Amino acid sequence: MGMNRRSIRQALGLALAAALLFAAAPASVEDASAEPKTEKTKTAAKTAAKPAPKAKIDEYLAAKAAYEKSLDAYWDDIATKRRARMTKRRDKQQIALEDYVLTQPPAYDGPPRPAGMPAPRREPKDVKLPPIPRAGEFIRAAGEHFQFVPHRPASEIDFKRAYARVALAAGLTEEQAVRIYAFETGGNGSYDVQAGLTHPKKGSKPISPAVGYNQLLSTNSVGLLAAKGDEFVKTLQERAAALQGDERSALERRAEALKRMIAHSRSVPYAWAEHDKMAKFTAKGYALHAAIFDRDIGPLLQTQKLLDSVLFARRNGWAAPLTAAELELMNFTGDGSGFDMVTMPHEFRDKVPTANFFQPRGYSRNPIAKRTGTVARLIASIETKMDRASQLPGAQEMVAAFREAAASKQASQ
């Protein structure tokens, strides 16, 4: 957990060395090959290049070092208390308020970085993630490596109907599915919408590989194929058996391609870290996420992700139906952290910071968790967005799809 923060402190030391070297360079020396400069540009350049006094650099570095030390202590305390809660929950002991860290993460309040001092690099270059693929890249990789081409729906409502049939058959409710869709996509998202591209503008880029109604991550796709792939193949085979001609042959080919994808997902140990590496750093890992775009397989993946959370809660003694917001907490933060918030006594929720349920890097990149600050405000924010976005046309179309599927299910019984 502390590796990145240590690298920041090392970077601060490098920044000091660079600043001192910069300070030692003669300010009047100019590049002989440069274009002639006017007096105005020379003055501006000298002002910008004026090195910071060593005393200011030392003051800044001391303040930053103290801040980094306090961050280390804070996140170590978060991790220690999280492990203690897991032990208590396993041993059927009651969780108390003091089992959580009750202060917000420390904020830097020292002097600003002196002008002329290079900014420290936040992370080592060797841990930088590759660019986030877009839908077309996932699909191309699937065709190249597994000869898998997703069967895209004829229309958005076609996919929603397929999703509604699968979700209802699995035991999910209309309220859960529609409100989670509303929260995750803003109420008008398509089956292939990617995070960061919900309302794309010129130059927009995806902010994560999360795709679809529940914003399924590529890492989730790898894990779901590894765990439940055989069930998905069986479902496809049963559907193919009810078809004829070219339509049947096409579905059978996709089922065979899916088998190859499943085999690859199982080529690494069943662990989040292994699935994450496969999903984010390998072309074949990209390819597995293409299944989310398939009209027959995508609804199975999206439903299974939510169903796994419901089953996790049941295994841990939660008998009551999960509300949409409670299920979204588990979808949003992971089953363990989400369930921790779901089971938290209501009187604790306005006192416990959201930081208790995140890793440092995840928290720093989660604007909702940082903005809301406490569990009570996080849940209220989720509910408010669900209420608002559920009224939009895309969400209302999802409601219609679920009611149509429910009527069809009832008529067939």
Topology at a glance:
Layout (H helix, E strand, L loop, with lengths): L2 H22 L14 H11 L4 H37 L44 H12 L9 H15 L3 H12 L32 H24 L3 H21 L6 H10 L1 H6 L9 H18 L8 H10 L1 H8 L17 H5 L2 H6 L2 H15 L3 H20 L1
Helix pairs in contact: 1-3, 5-11, 5-17, 6-12, 6-16, 6-17, 7-8, 7-9, 7-11, 12-13, 12-16
Question: How would you describe this structure to a colleague?
Answer:
- The chain has two domains: 3-121, no CATH class; 135-412, Orthogonal Bundle (Lysozyme), CATH 1.10.530.10.
- Helix content is 61%, strand content 0%.
- It has 17 helices and no strands.
- The protein is globular.
Structural class, judged by helices and strands? Answer: mainly alpha
Instruction: Tell me how many strands there are.
Output: 0
Major sheet summary line = none
- Percent helix, as a range, is 55-70%
Overall mean pLDDT: 87
The share of residues in extended strands comes to: under 5%
Net shape: globular
Q: How far apart, in Å, are the first and last alpha carbons? A: 53 Å
Cα gyration radius (Å): 26 Å
**CATH architectural category of the largest domain:** Orthogonal Bundle
Under the CATH scheme, which class of the largest domain? Mainly Alpha
